[in-house]
Amino acid sequence: VLPRFSTQNISNLLHGLGLVGFDRDDAFVMHVASHLATRLQECTAQDIANPVTALMRMVIPHDGLMHAIAAHLTSPLAKVPVSEFTPQEIANTVYGFDALQVFHAPLFERVAEATRR
What we know:
Blueprint: H1 7-19, H2 26-37, H3 45-58, H4 63-73, H5 87-99, H6 105-116
Helix pairs in contact: 1-2, 1-3, 2-4, 3-5
């Protein structure tokens, strides 16, 4: 079913689960997050920021998605670079990375550059 979902639908699903503090099936959340990691090139900034915040709220570290997001956002081929994120999208993404204790120096350097503009 997930391949038929848009990345916005997947993002909204994870975001909703995070808002209600879903804690029933980490394997399901991990599966959905893994699928999203394969489709980052289709994502908008919000499609990326919302799942990061959701995983943080559910306290479900998904290193694969987090590192894929960091690599994607620092790639010259990124459809939506960090510089195009809204202040809220930047804040939510950084907050999620920090809370889940995922450190990616190149991503944080890009965030620092984007916030100076």
